[in-house]
Amino acid sequence: MKKVENSLANLDNARYDMDRKRLETLPTDKAERQGATEPLPNEICKEDNTMKAKKLLSLGIACTMAAGLLAGCGASSSDSTASTATGDTGASAAATDGASGKVYYLNFKPEQDQQWQDLAAVYTEQTGVPVTVVTAASGEYETTLMSEMAKSDAPTLFQVNGPIGLANWKDYCYDLTGTPILGELTSDTYALKDGDATLGIGYVIESYGLITNKTLLEKAGYTIDDIKSFADLKKVAEDITARQDELGFAAFTSAGMDSSSDWRYKTHLANLPIYFEYKDEGITSTDAIKGTYLDNYKNIFDLYINNSTCAPTELAGKTADDSRNEFLANEAVFYQNGSWEYVNLTQDGTFTDDDLAMIPIYIGVGDEANQGLCTGTENYWCVNKEAPEEDIQATLDFIYWCVTSEEGTKAMADDMGFVIPFKGAQESTNVFVKEDQEMTAEGKVPVSWNFTTMPSENWKNNLGSALTAYAAGTGTWDDVVTAFVDGWATEAALNAG
Question: Is pLDDT of 230 > 90?
């Protein structure tokens, strides 16, 4: 298998030259820490390199043909980034004093790269355990994971996006049954299982919708209380467009369709017609999507591209950064994105909580008055069972610390804007998270994340290409429907084969 090269020039020597120092706050007995009666099996680390190569080749074929790879809430980073949290000289010296084990985390979320680097550094400073965080470029996680897993020093901690993603990687996943972190989950619904084995743990709950600049909306003569349906949203957006020169801003940021941004439409926006079809059919997945609500999908996409900061023909070259920067510059009222954007919008003081709101993405289906935000998870931690025993334990210790310690839970709540499904979670200061909680408390129904059932990454890419061509006027909506419906059946059949 030809490996995809990854720019990790300073990774190999830096991340592994320190020994491990056992957490003083955790039980010292290995069996007690694991919650198991038997030690970690040494044999999992002894697979022959030839067999590993064959395994990864087979996996590469499966990943190309099959399932729903990590979909993407991410920034427009073009390269993977790496850092080893070696801490200061004192921490490094302490680490050599009899400890063992190291952590290599391949992170899926570019928008939280720096926060993970910072948290890893804190952990290393406290424990002496070297933690390397590598962040894959937006839309390149699966490719990067395959490349890194083929190396001798593979990630000890990686991510899958749900049952379909797990199917590709389950042979590499350590069984988390009985581990302390599993016991910290608030609900077993966040445990990703294969039979009786727990192979992944959902570590973050997020929401997405239409981030709204309330100040600009009020300048246009409206409030968020005026938007309770697609019809309301259409009326407000088209009125803003009609007065755009007078007002000095547009309704929507650019619907960027490059690889850093198109996930917002081929994945997150496409979730809405899938959600409502599943709801009608009483199902949670399918090998043959009907496309019942694709007219509604067209209506919301048309509203975006015809009432934005740029002409539809320019969208192919617009990026995630373009869209965010337009919003930061007060050039548009609405910006489709998620709770993970909170820090990016508020960290430099451009916006305060009073300036921002998130409203549901209405497409004209269902009980819109009682519709909530799109809320769920596609991010499941998996521990590489083929890592050395001491690295597996170091990784288990690290993620346990992340979700139980004051430093970890604070960073995940405040710095990353996460709601985490663990008993020690801190209340988030993220205004979008608070709004989701308030809507749910009022009885509004969150739109579940069904895009994890999309049949493959290839399906998403083909849909994105069709949407881009449609916006540019070089393709038709029929092409979008074909990519959606026929493409789904084709990819599902490949997966079944």
Answer: yes
